[in-house]
Design a protein that fits this description.
single chain; 11 helices; 2 strands; mainly alpha; 4 domains; two-stranded antiparallel ribbon
C-alpha cells in the first residue's frame, strides 16, 4: 500500500509563494518582450517572406500561447489563494486540494495544433490539462524561440543593415573617385553594388536569412576594391608629384641642417658643443645627400611606394635635425639657468652665515669659472653648482645642530 505524503501548511505556503515569484518574473519578461521595438515592428510588417515569414508565424503563435499560459497560471494562483484563505493553518482537506493544484494537471490550456485534429468527444475548444511545472517549462521553451528570433531580426535590421548602408555609401564614393581620376572602373564594382542592394532587400524582407558572415564577405570584397581603386588613383594622379615631393622634403632637410650648423656655430661661442652632436649632424647630412641621389636616380614617377619611402625617410631626417637644434638650444638656456642658480646660492650662503666660509668660497669660485668661461663646459658647470648646493645644505645643517 502506497504511503501518501501530506504537505504541511508551511510547505504549502512556501510552494505557493515560490509559484507567485516565478509567475511575477515571467510576467515582467513577457511585458518586456511585448514592448520590444523589433517585435512591434514585426507585428506591423507586411513585407516578410521566406524563412523569416515562417519563423515569425511560429513565433507569434508561441507569443500568444505564452500569454494564454500566463493568464491561466494567474487564474490558478488566484484560485489557490482563495482556497488557502487567511487562516494561520489550513484544514487537511484544503491542504490536500492545494497540493493537488500545485502538483497535478490543474492548468487547462488550448490543445496545441500539432496534437492532431479534434476528436469526436472533444469540446468546441479542445484543451489539455498540464501541471504548473509543465506550463512553465513550455513557456520557457517558447520564450527562448521567440527571443532568439526577435534578436536575430533586430541584429539584421540594426547592425547588419547599418553595415550594408555603409557599403552602399562606399560604392558611391568609389564611383565618384573613378570619375574624378579617370582610372579604369573595376568589373567587380558594379557586381558588388548590385549584391549589396540585394542583401539590403534580404535584410528588410527575410532578415534571418542574412548572416553576419555574408556581410563580412561583402565588406572584404569592398575593401579589396577600395585598395585597387585608391592604388590606381594614386598611381594616375601622383606619380610625378611623389618624386617632386620627395626632393622637396630632402631640400627642406638640408636647409634645416644648414640652419642648425649656423646656430651651433653661434652657440659654440657660449657652450661646448658635444662631439656626438657634430657627428650626428654629419651623419644626417650624409643621409640627406644619399636620399637626394636616390631621388635623382628614380627613372619614372610610377615607382610610387619607393618614392613615398624616400620622402618618409627625408621627413624623419628633417625631424632629427629639428630635434638636435632644440636640444642644443635648451643647453644654452640651461647655462643661463645655472648662472641664475649660482647667484641664488651665493645669496643663500650669505643669508645663513656662510659668506666667509672658505669651502663655500672655493666651490662658488669653481662654479663661477666653469659657467662664465667661453665656451663653458655645461656638464662641468652643472656638477659644480650641484656640489655647491649640497655643501651649503650640509654646512647649514651642521650650524643648526651646533646651536641646538
Amino acid at each position: 500500500m502506497r504511503t501518501v505524503t501530506r504537505l504541511t501548511t508551511a510547505e504549502i505556503d512556501r510552494r505557493i509563494e515560490e509559484f507567485r515569484t516565478v509567475l511575477d518574473r515571467s510576467t515582467v519578461r513577457l511585458v518586456e518582450l511585448d514592448a520590444d521595438v523589433t517585435r512591434r515592428l514585426l507585428e506591423t510588417s507586411h513585407e516578410l517572406r521566406g524563412a523569416s515569414a515562417e519563423a515569425w508565424a511560429d513565433a507569434s503563435l508561441r507569443h500568444a500561447a505564452m500569454w494564454k499560459s500566463q493568464l491561466a497560471l494567474e487564474s490558478l494562483l488566484t484560485q489557490m489563494t482563495d482556497e488557502r484563505g487567511s487562516r494561520r493553518s489550513a484544514s487537511p482537506a484544503a491542504l490536500a486540494r492545494l497540493a493537488a493544484l500545485l502538483g497535478g494537471a490543474s492548468v487547462q490550456l488550448p490543445r496545441p495544433p500539432e496534437s492532431g485534429p479534434p476528436r469526436l468527444t472533444d469540446d468546441a475548444t479542445p484543451s489539455v490539462a498540464c501541471s504548473v511545472a509543465q506550463v512553465f517549462e513550455q513557456m520557457s521553451a517558447d520564450f527562448a524561440v521567440v527571443t532568439e528570433f526577435v534578436g536575430s531580426v533586430a541584429r539584421a535590421w540594426g547592425e547588419l543593415t547599418d553595415r550594408l548602408d555603409d557599403l552602399a555609401a562606399l560604392m558611391l564614393e568609389l564611383e565618384k573617385e573613378i570619375q574624378r581620376s579617370g582610372v579604369r572602373r573595376p568589373n567587380d564594382l558594379g557586381v558588388l553594388g548590385r549584391t549589396v542592394a540585394e542583401a539590403k532587400t534580404t535584410a528588410k524582407e527575410d532578415p534571418i536569412s542574412l548572416g553576419s558572415g555574408e556581410v563580412a564577405l561583402l565588406e572584404s570584397r569592398a575593401q579589396r576594391l577600395c585598395e585597387m581603386v585608391h592604388g590606381a588613383t594614386r598611381v594616375h594622379e601622383a606619380d610625378l608629384e611623389e618624386v617632386v615631393a620627395a626632393d622637396r622634403s630632402i631640400g627642406a632637410g638640408l636647409e634645416a641642417l644648414a640652419t642648425c650648423r649656423t646656430q651651433l656655430d653661434r652657440w659654440s661661442e657660449k657652450i661646448v658643443v658635444p662631439d656626438s652632436t657634430v657627428a650626428e649632424l654629419d651623419r644626417l647630412a650624409r643621409g640627406l645627400d644619399r636620399l637626394r641621389l636616390e631621388c635623382e636616380q628614380a627613372q619614372s614617377p610610377g615607382i610610387g611606394r619607393p618614392t613615398a619611402e624616400l620622402r618618409r625617410r627625408a621627413d624623419a631626417l628633417h625631424d632629427e635635425v629639428t630635434r638636435l637644434t632644440k636640444v642644443e638650444g635648451a643647453r644654452v638656456e640651461r647655462r643661463d639657468e645655472l648662472r641664475g642658480l649660482l647667484g641664488a646660492y651665493q645669496a643663500k650662503a650669505a643669508a645663513v652665515g656662510l659668506a666667509e666660509c672658505p669651502e663655500i668660497d672655493g666651490l662658488y669660485a669653481a662654479a663661477h669659472d666653469a659657467l662664465y668661461c667661453a665656451p663653458c663646459n655645461l656638464e662641468e658647470g652643472e656638477r659644480c653648482v650641484t656640489v655647491l648646493q649640497r655643501a651649503i645644505r650640509r654646512l647649514q645643517e651642521v650650524s643648526q645642530d651646533g646651536r641646538v
